[in-house]
Specification:
The complex is a heterodimer. Chain A has one domain (15-169, 184-368): Hydantoin permease (Orthogonal Bundle). Chain A is globular and about 60 Å long. In chain A, helix 5 packs across helix 6 and helix 8 (140-155) packs antiparallel against helix 13 (280-301). By secondary structure, chain A is an all-alpha fold. Chain A contains 15 helices and no strands. By secondary structure, chain B is an alpha+beta fold. Chain B folds into 3 domains: 9-125, no CATH class; 154-268, no CATH class; 282-450, no CATH class. In chain B, the strands form 3 sheets. In chain B, strands 1-2-4-5-3 form a 5-stranded antiparallel beta sheet, covered by helices on one side. Chain B has a 5-stranded antiparallel beta sheet with strand order 6-7-9-10-8, with helices on both faces. In chain B, strands 11-12 form a two-stranded antiparallel ribbon. In chain B, a hairpin with a 2-residue loop joins strand 1 and strand 2 (52-59). In chain B, helix 10 packs antiparallel against helix 14 (387-400) and helix 10 packs across helix 15. Chain B is elongated. Classes of the chains: A mainly alpha, B alpha+beta. At the A-B interface, helix 7, helix 8, helix 12 and helix 13 of A face helix 15 of B.
Chain lengths: 373, 495
């Protein structure tokens, strides 16, 4: 059950934890569907370009991490923006968090449903995942942040499996050309937006600054995280291109998983079942962080930011999230059309928040005239 | 806020049985009153000279009677004119002023001597050194390295450690727990090396122990653990002095408990339970390999049977066709689902393990071998279990015993049942959920308030040189960072 102080700050974390968190948040769900939306080989350059843009964004974010306001957490935001504005943002944050958890969870559950348990009611899968998320989140923010190391080590090895797709007999270098786009369309823009949105989620870490050890060289850690993510995207996209080529890539829904189904070992096949199951580590970790952020935002909204956390409050927040997801899954996620709406909404909202939050915080800090260089 | 307040110290004292005769003064009559109906209590009164009478009171079964004759009675007879303290100067005598102290000394093997001429009571320690000799460890056997192990005598155990660590900074603080057993506890640490916070936490935990019987160190550990409901041991139990010395040298605490050969080491991490003294005796590559084998075995023992259940219940498609044929043929005549088939076999294995542990050594070994083979063979022939499962159960069971810590082995066996249940419901997906639950639990566990899953979570990369592999000793230059020792470096030149 939840400890009396879910947001206790007894031992601050080094930048390494934030590095791992940034990387795993960027490798949550969109990378599974990304190759299908990018399709063309020249999108390799697109991924790199967006990766550089993301790096610029992270530089802005690192300025926030080194500011005096960020260290103070909630009080820092109040000093910077005023209590009323913070409450408004907390209110908006509730919907953003809820949307993100919903899309990521239902997207993952749909994959598990399709690849592992086609005949099982997906609500049971959602429930089982969320029970574990509740258990992790109930251990408090410190333990949840610490769990990122386990989540990272449990899943980082998966990208190594894709090395075999670089050397199949059918793979040809020609599949990777042209590297420069001969034409540019709205779909290409959408692909870039998806990559940008895939790299989002990091902006929510501004709420976790009180748990960060002061005077960390955050830019270094954020850069490493972003680089690893971009490299992983490139490995997955290039291997998908080599395996499917552009012509067939567009025809597969989850290319990253479909290609793994073709891997054969002497004693077992269908390694995709194992990979999907292991990826649960990341989903549980990220969901738990967002559940705690949701509870924190609710407390700020209700004006109880400085009071002791309660079991009831935490449980209520958890139930709201769970019921919302179950409702969306039951009535709004079934058909392909509606699903696309949710997905497009999250792509748009994720890209928007990732673009605006670091810039907004930096501008607000500058305007306040206390920016620490 | 969420927990009931503990009883205060004054409330607890009411349970102490030795407080029955509180508020009575120390006289021969009150002492006689106390030893009523104690067949082994002896009272000797002797007139040394006309105006000098001494009384000896002791428990016959607790003292060394030879020493009583040689060191007290004989000198008293032959040197009767001399003062009492001169007669018995070969013994360690201390003055006793109150009845509580007199009772305590009496029950710890002292002789109470009443010197009526000076109106004083003396306690002379003459406890019977009832102990077995120093033998080799039966629970943590190693091929090379020190063979001695602890015994039930706490003083002897302290000696075994002190001989290896001849330091004045090696501190031994004594406590007593158990209102009935009055079990002595010795807290050992190296001053100036061990993190003082750990010492404070350990002391406060020992001082709050309130129970009547303590017959083993595991019971003391149960009262000191941070998480009572966890299946993972939060204190390492060992009967090897070298393990204790290694722990002390790393900045940990050792707790010796009277009347048991098993000492406690804390704080520990999950990974400490996979370390054997062998690791530091072998060449580093071999030591690392053996440690790796232990980790792999632990993982295999936990996953093999659940994987069998998961694949046979939910994921037939994971097998290539040739393997699938073998499995289908093996399971074609079985009346049970994979879960019940595996569950029955595991229960049988547990019964055999428990039975062979409780029986005399040779009978136990025979029972283990014969029981395993006969029952396994018969189960296959009777159509209760598949051949594949028998092989899986056999490998899994043997693999589980590679972990050096027996408490961890038991935790592993219990986890196996939980994993099997999850895999039967949700297949490999369920197993992944099970692993996440276990790792979340380990992530939140603490041992003496220190993280249990260090150096992974929290991450201390510098401690990884003695984690999954053991690098050459020359490279292990720092003590574990996760313990925050006062002396970080093992090399004297870098202090």
């Amino acid at each position: 059950m939840p400890s009396p102080s879910l947001f206790e700050k007894s031992s601050p974390f080094s930048g390494v934890y934030f590095m791992l968190m940034v990387n795993r948040m960027q490798m949550l769900y969109f990378f599974i569907i990304m190759p299908r939306h990018l399709v063309h080989p020249y999108m390799i350059m697109g991924i790199m370009a967006v990766g550089i843009l993301s790096q610029v964004n992270l530089m802005l974010l690192s300025k926030w991490f080194s500011s005096n306001f960020s260290v103070q957490g909630y009080q820092g935001f109040v000093q910077l923006l005023g209590e009323r504005t913070v409450r408004v943002f907390a209110f908006l944050g509730l919907f953003l968090i809820l949307l993100r958890i919903t899309v990521m969870t239902l997207g993952f559950v749909e994959i598990a449903h399709q690849y592992i348990f086609p005949s099982m009611t997906s609500n049971w899968l959602i429930l089982s995942i969320f029970i574990v998320c509740f258990y992790l989140a109930s251990q408090g923010m410190e333990n949840t942040i610490r769990f990122v190391v386990i989540a990272f080590l449990s899943t980082i090895w998966m990208v190594i499996i894709y090395y075999s797709f670089f050397f199949p007999p059918i793979a040809s270098m020609h599949d990777l050309y042209p590297l420069m786009p001969p034409e540019w369309s709205a779909i290409s823009w959408k692909g870039l937006l998806l990559v940008w949105s895939s790299l989002s989620g990091v902006e929510f870490l501004v709420c976790l600054t009180p748990w960060l050890r002061p005077k960390q060289k955050m830019l270094k850690y954020l850069t490493i995280a972003n680089t690893i993510s971009v490299l992983e995207y490139l490995v997955l996209f290039i291997s998908s291109l080599l395996f499917f080529s552009s012509n067939y890539l567009v025809k597969t829904k989850y290319p990253v998983l479909d290609m793994v189904r073709y891997l054969q070992f002497p004693a077992y096949e269908r390694i995709d079942i194992v990979l999907i199951s292991v990826h649960l580590f990341v989903l549980v970790f990220v969901n738990s962080i967002f559940i705690l952020l949701f509870y924190g935002a609710t407390r700020i909204l209700l004006g109880k930011g400085v009071q002791q956390t309660t079991r009831m409050g935490f449980a209520a927040s958890f139930i709201i999230i769970l019921v919302s997801i179950l409702i969306v899954n039951q009535w709004f996620w079934k058909s392909g059309e509606e699903q696309n709406i949710w997905l497009n909404l999250q792509i748009g909202v994720g890209a928007f928040t990732y673009l605006l939050v670091p810039a907004f915080l930096l501008v607000a800090t500058k305007l306040k005239g206390r920016f620490k260089v | 806020m969420f927990w009931k307040k503990r009883k205060s110290g004054s409330d607890r004292k009411q349970n102490d049985p030795n407080k029955e005769v509180e508020n009575t003064t120390l006289t021969l009559d009150t002492l006689k009153n106390i030893v009523v109906n104690m067949d082994d209590a002896e009272i000797i009164e002797r007139q040394i000279n006309p105006d000098h009478k001494v009384t000896l009171l002791y428990i016959r079964t607790l003292i060394n009677q030879e020493r009583l004759n040689d060191e007290i009675i004989e000198p008293l007879i032959h040197h009767s004119p001399a003062p009492i303290h001169e007669c018995i100067n070969v013994c360690k005598a201390s003055k006793v002023n109150d009845l509580d102290e007199a009772q305590r000394q009496l029950m710890e093997g002292a002789i109470l001597l009443s010197d009526r001429s000076e109106d004083q009571w003396l306690a002379i320690k003459l406890e019977n050194p009832l102990s077995r000799s120093i033998e080799s460890s039966e629970t943590e056997t190693i091929l090379f390295g020190p063979k001695d192990s602890f015994s039930e005598q706490i003083e002897q155990n302290v000696t075994l450690i002190r001989r290896r660590l001849p330091l004045t900074t090696l501190k031994t603080e004594k406590f007593t727990v158990g209102s009935l057993t009055r079990t002595p506890i010795v807290l050992m640490y190296i001053e100036g090396l061990t993190n003082p916070e750990l010492i404070t936490i350990a002391k406060s935990k020992i001082l709050t122990i309130d129970y009547d019987l303590f017959l083993d160190s595991s019971q003391v550990a149960a009262f000191m653990e941070d998480h009572v409901h966890s299946i993972f041991p939060q204190f390492q139990q060992t009967d090897r002095p070298d393990s204790c010395v290694y722990a002390l040298g790393a900045g940990k605490l050792t707790i010796l408990v009277g009347n048991t050969p098993f000492a406690l080491i804390a704080p520990i991490t999950f990974f400490d339970l996979f370390i054997s003294p062998d690791d530091y005796i072998h060449r580093w590559l071999i030591g690392s390999f053996l440690r790796g084998v232990r980790f792999v075995s632990f993982f295999l023992s936990l996953t093999m049977i659940p994987l069998y259940v998961a694949i046979n219940t939910h994921h037939y498609q994971m097998f290539p066709l040739q393997v699938l044929f073998v499995l289908l043929e093996s399971r074609s005549k079985l009346p049970f689902t994979p879960f019940w088939e595996a569950f029955l076999m595991l229960i049988i294995i547990e019964i055999i393990i428990e039975a062979s542990l409780r029986m005399p050594t040779k009978t136990g070994q025979t029972l283990g071998v014969i029981g395993g083979i006969v029952i396994g063979q018969a189960s296959v022939e009777a159509g209760f279990a598949s051949k594949v499962l028998i092989v899986t159960v056999g490998i899994s069971t043997i693999a589980s015993f590679l972990v050096p810590n027996y408490l961890m082995v038991k935790a592993n066996r219990l986890l196996l049942f939980a994993f099997m249940l999850l895999s039967s419901i949700l297949g490999i997906f369920g197993m992944a959920l099970g692993f996440i639950i276990v790792l979340v639990h380990l992530n939140g566990l603490t041992s003496l308030k220190q993280p249990y899953f260090a150096p992974i979570a929290p991450l201390h990369m510098s401690d990884w040189n003695d984690l999954f592999i053991r690098v050459p000793l020359q490279w292990i230059k720092r003590r574990p960072v996760s313990l925050y020792p006062l002396q970080k470096w093992r090399s004297s030149r870098r202090r």
